[in-house]
């Protein structure tokens, strides 16, 4: 099953998110990642959905999404040039001895230190999902105590 | 103007004549305004009856059906009716009462999350949270319910909104940027379709409920006549094309005619119009129409290429698209094909043992057809009664067959017949029922008595939940688990207890008299208890997931 990235422009109203995700859950699809937020227009929100599925079923879900009255437009970002971003915050157990090593990794990934104590260090990394994934894999060696990730957002680039 | 008053004013502006429903605590302000309004209110005895009646009214008249139910249990009682209408694309505007906005979410008395529960079974729904939105929402609800692919729209109105004042304005036009139905078919697609049709050797028109919803029966008939292409219809498409016409193949699908299924299977071009390739039509999808290309005309883009890959999709209003096709399509040369079909009709007709001395259910349906001269509106319940009605009554006009197709809702027929009779007082409405289904909403009989509606309820009483029994007989070793319902009420006495007329018929000889006697009564409902052959089966029968080659044509000796 392939991974799909859908960017759904909707009316900023109560219940819209439930309508949108209901179309996936009704088909037994687990959404991998979800983000919802306001846009430049206060009446419009964008829902970014990352989901694995069979292409015919996803095609059908896209049509069903378009049928929802509160959905203004559905954009499929799966195969178009787009900037895709996620945030992860990770807390690791860390003795002062290993700090320099971790700082170097953080620097390589452009990760920011958001909390530090005698025994632990919390880092925030922002970027393409594959970069976030790589960062987590590397940092895993130091013993992750807590990990939290945002839903993905996706921004279509202008075509040349 | 108070919210409750705004509701009634808006319904009047939408030309609502009948409204079906049941009152309740949070609806008192609305019923207070309804009391002296010109809208005729039909009080059901169960909210499910109200919504099916609104549905029957809508199917028979083409106008939206209006239903109102109270919060909590009132609203949950209409869920089946919403799902029924949603599956069959019936335009309904449904109002539910809700607890006061500040109580919502507190498990208040008679509270239920109605917009949450109804989301998957409505075309759209609203919870009114601000009185200033009320008029706009009602106007949008009518617009959404009746345009594009029609469907039920629900408005949940908290009681404090009904009691709040604000300035009323119903004139502002509807503007929904996320909802713009397409009506005009793409001209290039239409041209391609016309060319494909004129070159076809074995074309078949497969016409669905959309042709009736889109009021395109006249155009369908003209198109079929002009091109000489045979027409089969779905269950919900019955009446869109006269079944008495020589081009008619009647119904296709699981219990369709053999010649319809054969023709579709052998076709080289299937022209689907307002139909959605339901599993009851296609059987095993991988082996459906092995040699055919497909043109699919439908107003709903999500129906296109959902179950079957389509060669030429045309999204839009079937009436407009058929008008275009009538203008530009050249008649294909299909004489051998028509001969083959004519032969198939002769060798594989619809069959039952009409020589049998026993009272056969099919015979009852045939006699109803003959005696009413096909001019009645037929409602059905669900199961064998529904299939026999579809097979042996020959439908020739749209909106004369009222049946729950997609959801298959037992208990639909009686209330739907009541709604249809109110909407079309000039025609006789006959509910062809089973002894199982009729007991699911029998309480609605009193509504027909109260309003002196001469609805005829023809119960094909075989003492079984016959369709399931038939499957048990054929596929489950005749283990009739919970399908024998011979412990039943005396339907004649039951009718009389309600103030209706009850007639029992136990042999063939009594059928015509009973039907004529019922037709002579015009001021109250009539229940005819036809005690029919107990283990009669519906044939032809393409078993679920089968193909035309698996068709069981008749009882194996």
What is this structure, in a nutshell?
The complex is a heterodimer of chains A (160) and B (557). By secondary structure, chain A is an alpha+beta fold.
Query: What is the CATH third-level topology name of the largest domain in chain A?
Result: Alpha-Beta Plaits
The beta-strand count of chain B equals 18
- How is the main sheet of chain A built? 5 strands, antiparallel
The helix-and-strand class of chain A reads alpha+beta
End-to-end separation of chain A: 31 Å
How large is the radius of gyration of chain B?
24 Å
C-alpha Rg of chain A (nearest Å): 19 Å
Describe the biggest sheet of chain B?
A: 6 strands, parallel
Going by CATH, the architecture of the largest domain in chain A would be 2-Layer Sandwich
* Strand and helix order of chain A: EHEEHEEHEEHEE
Number of helices of chain B: 22
General shape of chain B: globular
For the termini of chain B, the CA-CA separation is: 72 Å
Which structural class matches the secondary elements of chain B?
A: alpha/beta
Can you name the CATH architecture of the largest domain in chain B? Answer: 3-Layer(aba) Sandwich
Query: What's the structural domain tally of chain A?
Result: 2
CATH class of the largest domain in chain A reads Alpha Beta
Percent of residues of chain B in helical segments?
25-40%
> What general outline of chain A do the C-alpha atoms trace?
elongated
Topology:
The complex is a heterodimer of chains A (160) and B (557).
Chain A: E1 2-11, H1 16-25, E2 31-38, E3 44-53, H2 55-67, E4 71-76, E5 82-93, H3 99-109, E6 112-116, E7 120-127, H4 129-139, E8 144-149, E9 153-156
Antiparallel strand pairs in A: 1-3, 1-4, 2-3, 5-7, 5-8, 5-9, 6-7
Helix pairs in contact in A: 3-4
Chain B: H1 3-13, E1 18-21, H2 28-34, E2 40-43, H3 47-61, E3 65-69, H4 73-76, H5 79-87, E4 92-98, H6 114-118, E5 124-127, H7 134-146, E6 152-158, H8 159-162, H9 187-199, E7 203-207, H10 209-213, H11 217-227, E8 231-233, E9 248-251, H12 258-266, E10 269-273, H13 279-282, E11 293-298, E12 312-315, H14 318-328, H15 335-347, H16 361-372, E13 377-380, H17 384-392, E14 401-402, H18 413-423, E15 429-434, H19 445-450, E16 456-461, H20 466-475, H21 491-498, E17 501-505, H22 511-520, E18 526-531
Parallel strand pairs in B: 1-2, 1-3, 3-4, 4-6, 5-6, 7-8, 7-10, 8-9, 10-11, 11-12, 13-14, 13-15, 15-16, 16-18, 17-18
Helix pairs in contact in B: 1-2, 1-7, 3-5, 3-18, 9-14, 11-14, 16-17, 16-22
């Amino acid at each position: 099953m392939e991974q799909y990235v859908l960017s759904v422009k909707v009316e900023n109203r109560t219940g819209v998110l439930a309508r949108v995700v209901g179309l996936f859950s009704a088909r037994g699809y687990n959404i991998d990642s979800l983000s919802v937020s306001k846009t430049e227009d206060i009446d419009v929100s964008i829902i970014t959905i990352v989901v694995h599925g069979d292409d015919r079923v996803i095609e059908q879900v896209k049509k069903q999404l378009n049928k929802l009255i509160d959905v203004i437009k559905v954009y499929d970002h799966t195969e178009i040039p787009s900037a895709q971003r996620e945030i992860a915050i990770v807390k690791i157990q860390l003795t002062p001895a290993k700090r320099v090593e971790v700082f170097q990794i953080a620097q390589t990934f452009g990760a920011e230190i958001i909390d530090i104590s005698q025994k632990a260090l919390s880092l925030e990394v922002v970027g393409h999902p594959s970069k976030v994934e790589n960062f987590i894999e590397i940092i895993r060696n130091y013993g992750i105590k807590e990990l939290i990730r945002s839903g993905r957002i996706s921004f279509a680039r202008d075509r040349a | 103007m108070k919210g409750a008053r705004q509701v009634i004013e808006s319904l009047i502006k939408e030309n609502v004549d009948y409204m079906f429903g049941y009152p309740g605590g949070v609806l008192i302000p609305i019923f207070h305004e309804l009391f002296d309004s010109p809208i005729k209110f039909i009080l059901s005895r169960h909210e499910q009856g109200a919504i099916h009646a609104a549905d029957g009214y809508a199917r028979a008249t083409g106008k939206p059906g209006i239903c109102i139910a109270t919060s909590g249990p009132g609203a949950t009682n209409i869920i089946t009716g919403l799902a029924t209408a949603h599956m069959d694309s019936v335009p309904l505007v449904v109002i539910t009462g809700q607890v006061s906005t500040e109580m919502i979410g507190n498990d208040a008395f008679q509270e239920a999350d109605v917009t949450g529960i109804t989301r998957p079974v409505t075309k759209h729904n609203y919870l009114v949270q601000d009185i200033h939105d009320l008029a706009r929402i009602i106007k949008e609800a009518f617009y959404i319910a009746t345009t594009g692919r029609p469907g039920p729209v629900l408005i949940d109105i908290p009681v404090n909104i009904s009691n709040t004042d604000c300035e009323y304005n119903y004139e502002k036009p509807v503007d929904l940027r996320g909802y713009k139905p397409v009506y005009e078919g793409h001209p290039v697609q239409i041209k391609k379709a016309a060319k494909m049709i004129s070159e076809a050797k074995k074309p078949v028109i497969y016409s669905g409920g959309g042709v009736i919803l889109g009021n395109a029966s006249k155009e369908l008939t003209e198109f079929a006549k002009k091109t000489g292409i045979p027409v089969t219809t779905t269950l919900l498409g019955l009446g869109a094309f006269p079944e008495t016409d020589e081009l008619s193949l009647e119904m296709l699908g699981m219990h369709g005619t053999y010649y319809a299924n054969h023709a579709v299977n052998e076709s080289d071009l299937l022209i689907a119009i307002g139909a959605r390739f339901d599993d009851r039509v296609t059987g095993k999808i991988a082996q459906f129409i092995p040699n055919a290309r497909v043109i699919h005309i439908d107003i709903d883009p999500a129906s296109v290429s959902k179950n079957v890959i389509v060669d030429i999709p045309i999204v839009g209003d079937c009436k407009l698209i058929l008008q275009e096709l009538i203008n530009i399509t050249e008649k294909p040369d299909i004489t051998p094909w028509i001969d083959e079909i004519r032969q198939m009709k002769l060798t594989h007709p619809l069959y039952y043992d009409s020589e049998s001395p026993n009272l056969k259910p099919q015979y009852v349906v045939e006699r109803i057809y003959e005696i009413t001269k096909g001019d009645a509106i037929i409602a059905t319940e669900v199961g064998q009664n529904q299939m026999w009605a579809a097979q042996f009554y020959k439908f020739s006009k749209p909106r004369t067959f009222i049946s729950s197709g997609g959801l298959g809702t037992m208990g639909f027929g009686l209330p739907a017949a009541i709604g249809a009779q109110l909407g079309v007082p000039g025609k006789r409405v006959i509910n062809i029922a089973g002894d199982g289904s009729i007991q699911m909403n029998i309480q609605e009989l009193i509504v027909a008595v109260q309003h002196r509606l001469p609805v005829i309820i023809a119960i094909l009483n075989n003492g079984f939940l016959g369709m399931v029994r038939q499957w048990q007989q054929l596929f489950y070793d005749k283990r009739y688990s919970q399908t024998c319902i011979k412990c039943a009420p005396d339907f004649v006495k039951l009718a009389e207890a309600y103030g209706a007329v009850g007639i029992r018929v136990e042999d063939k000889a009594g059928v015509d008299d009973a039907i004529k006697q019922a037709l002579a009564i015009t001021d109250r409902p009539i229940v005819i208890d036809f005690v029919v052959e107990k283990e009669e089966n519906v044939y032809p029968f393409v078993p679920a997931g089968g193909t035309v080659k698996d068709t069981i044509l008749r009882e194996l000796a």
